[in-house]
Amino acid sequence: MKILVPIAQVPDTTAKISFTDNNTKFNATGVQFIINPYDEWYALVRALELKEAGLAEKVSVIHVGLADADATIRKALALGADDSFRIDTDPADAYVVAQQLAQFIKNNPYELILMGKETISYNSGVAAGILAGLLDYPYIANASKLDINGNTAVAHQDIEGGYQVVECALPVVISANKGMAEQRIPNMKGIMAARTKPLQVIPAYPVNITTKYEQFELAPGRSACKFIDPNNVEELVHLLHTEAKVI
Amino acid sequence: MSVLVFADASNNGKVKKASFEATYFASQIAQQTGGKCVVLSLKADDDSKQKLAHAGAQKIINITNDIPAISDVSVAAKILLKYTQTEGIKDVVLPNDIQGKAVASYLAGLLNTGIAPAVTSLVSINGSTYVFKRNVFSGKAYAQISISSDKKVITLLPNSLQIQWNTQNIAEIKDITENDNYTPRVIVKSVEKTTTGGNIPLPEAEIVVSGGRGLKGPENWGIIEDLAKALGAATACSRPVADAHWRPHHEHVGQTGIAIRPNLYIAIGISGAIQHLAGVSGSKTIVVINTDKEAPFFKAADYGIVGDAFEVVPKLTEAIKKFKASQQ
Ligand SMILES: Cc1cc2nc3c(=O)[nH]c(=O)nc-3n(C[C@H](O)[C@H](O)[C@H](O)COP(=O)(O)OP(=O)(O)OC[C@H]3O[C@@H](n4cnc5c(N)ncnc54)[C@H](O)[C@@H]3O)c2cc1C
Ligand SMILES: Nc1ncnc2c1ncn2[C@@H]1O[C@H](COP(=O)(O)O)[C@@H](O)[C@H]1O
User: Fold this and answer.
1) ipTM score here?
2) Model pTM score
3) Beta-bridge mates of residue B199
4) Domains in chain A and their CATH numbers?
5) Which domains does chain B have, with CATH numbers?
């Protein structure tokens, strides 16, 4: 079995968010980029664990994006992925990403496509589902546990108020939620090895672009906090009812 | 053009709040585009069907038989695809909850079309270009996203709008049996519930009571649950709390947990790290209870109490109970 892990590149979780070009573009100046945590900590690490357990022969990572993401892709190789691909185009939205990935997978079949639940930047959470729909592969969303049993994926799929144990024959698209694996830190050996592992750049497939971010605006800050005496919680209840009108 | 909503009530016949919101939202789009708001519901009871009409549905196609295969999202998406064709649908709206998002994205793939995910409001409709508002960067910013494909799939973030119920609205209701034989590929073996307190799904909850490491251990969660119960709230937690298995994973809110935007978020013993705030800063009102007056969360709060959770929270629960009793 071969596993493909599509990874997104996102601003570091503590990055200051701002916009340029009349608030139409994310301002990347001075921003540190990382692999989207869901893709790295859960999807990629679980894929590597499956390989280490002898259940997969190869783990490839793929990124839809421009050359500025190569360092991020190398980090995935340093963690232990065997090889990598970059489809050379601007990842305008989840539909673009899914179309590119679908074309790639049609030409390069993988039995397991393991993605993140969502990117922590644009918070779409739909690329995996669109990809599965485009390929007509089965789709397990929000999996917090994943095992492979012969030709079958066995997963815990998070649902509201709990989880369900599901099974599905390969090939399948799965999106990873927290819990599927534990974060790993790349070691020196991995970092050295990553330099010589393959990173193949693939020209973009022609696809449709249907959505566009027209305008951004920072969320307004809150006005100063009103402090209430811990011995007068009735005051808080009163304010929540009369001022905030939330109870 | 007509807009289709999917409302799954197969659990107990009750349509969920998030699906009523999606219906109301879809009816606004339908109104502006001169189309009809059509709801495909699954085993909705009479009361729910009436409420769907009051939320804006003009036509309700209610599947009355069990379709076990629908637990596979690809089957749900294929059934929806069929009705987009038979009803001449251009736009599909689903709630952006776990199931809604999975079905909507799969459907977008089947339709080979774009998707506007987790939108919070409609900004404008100009010909076949719709502009929506949505939260990005985990609530740190808002964006306007335009979608201009011929067919559109839209998911609506729960709790984003106030439904204007129209009790005069009457819908054409068709109860049908769905006879197509779908074979599920994803098979559900068992369902494990991990909720302890009330049964309010976190993403839909209007009030959320959340606990952090300041509570010291899982044995102390009784005070959180009591307060949640008094308020009719859902419970949540910070990431280290879920990592330590004090609370189930799905209660973890924040940048790497779920993002919520309830009317009222009460954070107890949570420091207010930037990654935590990312998932809750969309809340309308935030109350913080923390022993440390320098805790960063107070900067993001509307109301704060500097005090020990173990003393303040039980008192607050009593005060809420009294208030509720006085409102009866
Ligand atoms: C990439 C990344 C992603 C992350 N994603 C998330 C995320 O999604 N969600 C998340 O929550 N965190 C996330 N974190 C972790 C985050 O940085 C913080 O470590 C975490 O939120 C802290 O949790 P806490 O507030 O419960 O604990 P602490 O920071 O330990 O705070 C405990 C608080 O309790 C107070 N306290 C102590 N005793 C009492 C008492 N008796 N009564 C009242 N108050 C008391 C203390 O003053 C303190 O403020 C992420 C971190 C990284 C690096
Ligand atoms: N540019 C990209 N290249 C490769 N994979 C991506 C890209 N963007 C998103 N993904 C994958 O799709 C998942 C969901 O992304 P999204 O739907 O954009 O929130 C991510 O967790 C990644 O696994």
Assistant:
1) 0.92
2) 0.91
3) none
4) 2-213 (3.40.50.620)
5) 2-176 (3.40.50.620), 197-327 (3.40.50.1220)
